[in-house]
Amino acid sequence: MKIQPYVEKLSASKTYKEFQQKYKDAFLVAGFFVLDFETGQNIHQIDYYVPSEKKVAAFTLDDKVVVQLLDTVNEKVPEKLEMKTKIDLDALKGILDDEMKNRNITEEIRKIVAVIQTIEGKKIWILNCILSGMGVLKAHVDDESQTVLKMEKASVLDYMKKFPSATMQPKKPTKEDIEKELEQLDKMKEALKKEEVELEKKEEE
């Protein structure tokens, strides 16, 4: 599953051409993908930054091309991204599986929320995964070397506490509550990117 066909679909669409005419200063900054290995309902999205609006234009490419202008989570201008990648989407799971075995993590990956962006000149995959044991796996993968730069596992309940919706849940969430929270992960892209960028900054200090 390569990214390039989605880029070509976007470039050929009327929606993108009209957007390009209106926002000539826009440039590519990220790819956002949800790979659901249980339902097969995947999401493919490409983001452009619009300096004149200080917003991100998110193009959803499944079915027809749809664009939304979204507020950014911080004022920092994102780095430009070249969308040609060495790692294909369908290779991400295998890369993670191998590293999980090395770390004795035995759960299976149910869903991958993947963001690819340029961080300090390097093309990085920021991956947040839902595991079979209701855990969350976070990883950074370097696209050039195809190696895992970092990986950590957390409880989905700990992860939920970071978001306001979690405070509305009972003290002991039911399975249905947790499933609802998992669905919301698909909508947390901007929050995830902000969190990962902040982690990168802390590591440099």
Tally of helical runs: 6
End-to-end distance, in Å? 37 Å
Order of helices and strands: HHEEEEHEEEEHHH
Strand-pairing-aware structural class: alpha+beta
Can you tell me the residue ranges where pLDDT is under 50 for at least 5 consecutive residues?
163-175
The main sheet comes to: 8 strands, antiparallel
Helical content (DSSP H or I, runs of 4+): 25-40%
Mean pLDDT: 82
- Using the alpha-carbon principal axes, give the shape: globular
Neighbour order of strands in the largest sheet? 4-3-2-1-5-6-7-8
Report strand %: 25-35%
Q: What would you report as the Rg, rounded to the nearest angstrom?
A: 17 Å
Number of strands: 8
Overview of the molecule:
- The protein has 205 residues and is α+β, with helices and mostly antiparallel strands.
- The protein has helices at residues 4-12, 14-22, 92-102, 156-160, 175-185, 189-204; strands spanning 27-36, 43-50, 55-60, 66-71, 109-119, 122-131, 135-142, 147-155.
- Mean pLDDT is 82; it is low at 163-175.
- The chain is globular and about 50 Å long.
